[in-house]
């Protein structure tokens, strides 16, 4: 019977370290792999033939070896992009080698027969689009902010006139610059007077500002739900922009109807885990006081006060001590 947990992530990943430690305490066999190590640090051979139900073969790292058929669960975290492995090559060769590795090795790692993925990369990609998230939220009866996605300046001006004050958000984080440094553009209030024809260059996300009394991060792992109300000492619109060590946390109870909607959301997208952000209005006790903002299907949770409990929840579901979402 398959019993190994495969942890797919980069070398430096403290969050994954915690989950691996919890699995080790349960005496679960764990193999950690970063697919971008393909080469002398990572070798594999996978075979399939007519009539076979799945790929067979072995995966070997510098320190571990695993039979593909022995993998019962995959914790897919944040592996290094394949392109980094080949950055020393000329552009055409780099893109070719990275694509071959992604479709070959990645194709095998993403098709392990009978394995529980937390989360499957294809499901993460599918769930990563904010327009799809917002539409699914409304289908499930969750409140969302009035939202416009556009590259049309007149549409943006009309939306601001109807729903101001207006917030601008990015769809994705900033990519690394030439020196490898990353950055972020936080959610921010935007003055419609600054709208001009430069909006036509790309897509923009505008939302009506919610008169919130607080923010909540809800972390769902399988059937377990962890919720923390979050406040920035300076009252910042986006609590992520400051020092996370200064944030004020307090546990909060998620209304039953909201919790049910979150489980339905994850199940509909083939996800086992997700980090949901909500804006609270009023005292936050009633479901109508909860406005859904987004879901990160590969979100960070190690900074939360209930991280030890979340770690145990991951270890339980990966070791099959807790059933996946129904």
Provide a descriptive summary of the structure in words.
The chain has 326 residues and is of the alpha+beta class. The chain folds into 3 domains: 115 residues, Rossmann fold, CATH 3.40.50; 63 residues, Dna Ligase, domain 1 (2-Layer Sandwich); 93 residues, ATP-grasp fold, B domain (D-amino Acid Aminotransferase, Chain A, domain 1). A 5-stranded antiparallel sheet has the order 14-13-12-15-16. Helix 1 packs across helix 8. The model has no long low-confidence stretch (mean pLDDT 91).
Brief description of this entry?
The chain is an alpha+beta fold.
Relevant terms:
4-stranded parallel beta sheet, 5-stranded antiparallel beta sheet, 26% strand, 3 domains, Rossmann fold, alpha+beta, D-amino Acid Aminotransferase, Chain A, domain 1, 326 residues, Dna Ligase, domain 1, globular
Which structural class do the helices and strands define? alpha+beta
State the name of the first-level CATH class of the largest domain: Alpha Beta
The CATH topology of the largest domain is what?
A: Rossmann fold
| Low-pLDDT windows of residues | none
* Architecture per CATH nomenclature, i.e. the level-2 architecture of the largest domain: 3-Layer(aba) Sandwich
Structural shape: globular
Question: With helices defined by DSSP (H or I, 4 residues minimum), what is the helix count?
Answer: 8
Helix content: 25-40%
Q: What is the number of domains?
A: 3
- Fraction of residues in β-strands: 25-35%
């Amino acid at each position: 019977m398959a019993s190994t947990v495969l942890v797919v992530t980069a070398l430096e990943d403290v969050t994954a370290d915690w989950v691996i430690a919890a699995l080790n305490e349960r005496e679960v066999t764990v193999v950690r792999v970063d697919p971008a190590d393909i080469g002398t640090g990572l070798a594999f051979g996978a075979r399939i033939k007519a009539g076979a139900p799945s790929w067979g073969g072995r995966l070997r790292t510098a320190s571990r070896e695993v039979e593909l058929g022995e993998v019962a669960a995959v914790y897919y975290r944040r592996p290094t992009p394949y392109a980094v492995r080949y950055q020393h090559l000329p552009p055409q060769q780099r893109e070719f080698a990275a694509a071959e590795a992604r479709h070959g090795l990645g194709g095998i790692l993403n098709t392990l027969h009978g394995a529980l993925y937390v989360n499957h990369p294809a499901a993460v990609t599918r769930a990563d689009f904010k327009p799809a998230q917002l539409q699914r939220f409304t289908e499930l009866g969750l409140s969302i902010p009035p939202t416009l996605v556009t590259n049309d300046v007149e549409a943006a001006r009309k939306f601001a006139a109807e729903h101001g004050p207006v917030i601008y958000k990015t769809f994705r984080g900033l990519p690394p610059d030439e020196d490898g440094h990353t950055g972020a553009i936080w959610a921010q209030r935007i003055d419609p007077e600054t709208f001009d024809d430069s909006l036509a260059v790309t897509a923009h996300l505008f939302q009506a500002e919610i008169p919130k009394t607080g923010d909540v991060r809800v972390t769902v792992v399988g059937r377990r739900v962890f919720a923390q109300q979050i406040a920035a000492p300076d009252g910042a619109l986006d609590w992520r922009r400051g020092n996370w060590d200064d944030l004020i946390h307090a546990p909060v109870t998620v209304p039953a109807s909201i919790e049910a909607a979150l489980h339905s959301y994850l199940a509909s997208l083939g996800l086992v885990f997700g980090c949901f952000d909500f804006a609270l209005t009023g005292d936050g006790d009633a479901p109508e006081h909860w406005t859904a903002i987004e879901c990160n299907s590969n979100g960070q949770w190690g900074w939360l006060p209930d991280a030890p409990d979340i770690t145990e929840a991951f270890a339980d579901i990966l070791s099959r001590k807790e059933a996946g979402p129904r």
